[in-house]
Design goal:
With about 425 residues, the chain is an alpha/beta fold. About 50% of the residues lie in helices and about 10% in strands. It has 3 domains: about 15-130, no CATH class; about 135-210, Rossmann fold, CATH 3.40.50.10700; about 230-425, no CATH class. The chain has helices at about 20-40, 50-70, 80-100, 110-130, 145-150, 185-195, 200-210, 220-225, 230-265, 295-300, 320-325, 335-340, 350-360, 380, 390-405, 410-425; strands at about 1-5, 135-140, 155-160, 170-175, 200, 270-275, 285-290, 345, 375. It has a 5-stranded parallel β-sheet with strand order 1-3-2-4-5.
Length: about 425
């Protein structure tokens, strides 16, 4: 909503929204409650060392899960329900693995009670806080602040005077630092920062809320660096290969089932092969399960129009529709990951014909090849399948956001939301 005066907003912050309350409640649910249950079961007898080890592990799990959430929560489009389960389970799983490797004694019941209590408390609090999720951000007049007004996830208000009283009900402020704001407004922003308010630059806030980097020019100012972190780039390559190797025992039976279904559905090859553009613009052959009529997919190799998949495309087979909706058709690309041609997470590799066309139509399109292409990506979980140039332009902005904020935390967030995409079929065609 847009209000002419922030005085019309009288929302009071709830104690339940504070991180300290969440941390305290998580400790009670994951540490003190299991301790009480274990003591009750033992009839007040002395608690063994294994129990104390498990309680210490639960305490560490609470801190780790908070750190995981804080690291991922900076990225846009996040709902707490997306992050709670993977962050909590990851925190407790870390300790379970540590116990297995160190052979330190532990109490299995206390570990299980800690995980269960942590999850129950977190989701109970989430349900309680549904009405407290929207933020109120005050807009400082001047410059290009209009670009954020249409973003619907925030309550926007106009700050009409350069005083802290005028912005009292705002959680944060946004301003265009490149505009001539005037001395009074600049002093006000400095005072707001000293008062503990968050003050956003409008362009960075728009990126954070939309998950897209507007394509103006590839400069040091907009990207910080034209090359993502090389250290994480190589570390990610090793992690991708190990994860692909570990996933094969689970993925192979699913691939076998998909192959049998395709064969029973009609004539034609089981696998679809296509030349795609990969890291640094190098060409490689991508593998997928065939989801279209054989003649249609053969034409897609050379024909730009045939390479585009439309809504309810008649070329998609019955089995193919199921495979696309669940993303099972992408599973053979695990072998592309093992060959070092792809990553689990990254911009989707485009067909050579489409890539050539987009390069001619969209400036800086080739920059997306600075990282390895992925089986899933930031654009896929936010936008889904695209074909026309305008949609590809928006997709490229999502890709640029991924490259700009290239990190393990963003990859972890994409992985968590990919599970939801697979379950709902979001963006498939």
């Amino acid at each position: 909503m847009n209000n002419s005066s922030p005085a019309r907003l009288t929302r009071k912050k709830s104690i339940y929204t504070r991180q300290r309350f969440f941390l305290l409640g998580a400790f009670v649910a994951a540490v003190l409650l299991p301790l009480a249950i274990r003591a009750l079961l033992r009839g007040g007898e002395f608690i063994e060392e294994q129990t104390w080890n498990a309680l210490a592990a639960n305490s560490l799990a609470v801190l780790l899960s908070m750190w995981f959430r804080a690291s991922i929560d900076q990225y846009p489009g996040n709902r707490a329900s997306y992050l709670l389960f993977p962050s909590i389970v990851a925190g407790h799983a870390f300790n379970a693995v540590a116990f297995l490797f160190t052979r330190v004694g532990y109490d299995r019941l206390v570990l299980l009670l800690g995980l269960t209590g942590h999850l129950v408390f977190a989701y109970a609090l989430l349900m309680l806080l549904r009405r407290h999720q929207r933020s109120v951000i005050g807009i400082v007049p001047g410059g290009e602040t209009a670009k954020v007004r249409d973003i619907p996830t925030i309550d926007w208000v106009d700050v009409e005077a350069p005083s802290l009283d005028a912005a009292r009900e705002c959680d944060a402020l946004v301003a265009d630092f490149s505009a001539e704001l005037g001395d009074e407004w600049e002093r006000f922003l400095a005072d707001a920062a000293l008062d503990g308010r968050i003050v956003y630059q409008v362009k960075q806030l728009a990126e954070s809320l939309t998950g897209r980097v507007e394509i103006e020019h590839l400069s040091e100012n907009s990207f910080g660096s034209l090359v993502p972190s090389r250290g994480y780039f190589y570390l990610k390559g090793v992690a991708d290969w190990v994860a692909a190797l570990i996933s094969l025992p689970v993925a192979l039976p699913m691939m076998l089932g998909a192959a049998v279904a395709i064969k029973l559905d009609g004539k034609g090859p089981i696998l679809f092969r296509q030349t795609r553009v990969g890291h640094a613009g190098k060409l490689f052959t991508v593998y997928k399960f065939r989801t279209m009529l054989p003649a249609a997919e053969a034409a897609a190799v050379d024909d730009r129009t045939a390479a585009m998949t439309g809504e309810r495309d008649p070329r998609i087979t019955r089995v193919g529709a199921v495979l696309r909706r669940s993303r099972i058709d992408e599973l053979p690309q695990i072998f592309n990951v093992l060959l070092g041609q792809m990553s689990w997470i990254g911009p989707r590799p485009e067909a050579q014909a489409l890539s050539s066309w987009y390069t001619g139509e969209i400036p800086f399109y080739r920059y997306r090849h600075v990282v390895k292409p992925g089986i899933s990506g930031w654009a896929q979980i936010n936008q889904g399948h695209v074909a026309d140039v305008d949609a590809v332009h928006a997709k490229l902005q999502y890709d640029f956001f991924y490259i700009k904020y290239f990190s393990p935390w963003l990859d972890l967030l994409i992985a968590a939301r990919t599970v939801r995409t697979m379950l709902t079929g979001f963006g498939s065609k």
